Input
Amino acid sequence: MTPFAALRASVVFPLGLMLVLLGPYCTTAVLAAPRHALPAAAITGQDDKGKALYLEHCKLCHGVSGTPPKMMVKRFAKIPDLSRPAFFSTRSDDSLMVVLQKGTGVSMKSFAEKLSTDEMRALVKYLRTLAEPH
Ligand code: HEC
Output
């Protein structure tokens, strides 16, 4: 064996061995990463519960971020922009709960039949985060 070949074998062999041993592990780690990323973002705290409920029941009219889509602004003259801090500074949690329990008395209906009190609380908490700077 020439010294060069010996050198090559001593470098290539451990490298190859490492690949063989670590390859499947790396692949698994890469494949598993997105699955780990999701639950991390969706750890079931109040905010995430509120967010899920918001996306399910409120997004259609109020928009993902609290700013109503143009179509809804045309349809509902009074629909507020829930992403504006000024809006929430003039509302207490209790008054937001009343809106969810009883509706606005204008176009927005009561959610009393769809949501439990706990779910409404989680929603109110989440609503306030819409107006926080992101
Ligand atoms: C059918 C469309 C629609 C849906 C769905 C809807 N809203 Fe509304 N919402 C409105 C409109 C329109 C207004 C403005 C007042 C009015 O015209 O009734 C309003 C007003 C509000 C207000 C302001 C009330 C106030 O104090 O002035 C809040 C807070 C609110 N909605 C939260 C929610 C939440 C939370 C949900 C989901 C559980 C939701 N809305 C679902 C249409 C909707």
The longest helix spans residues 3-41.
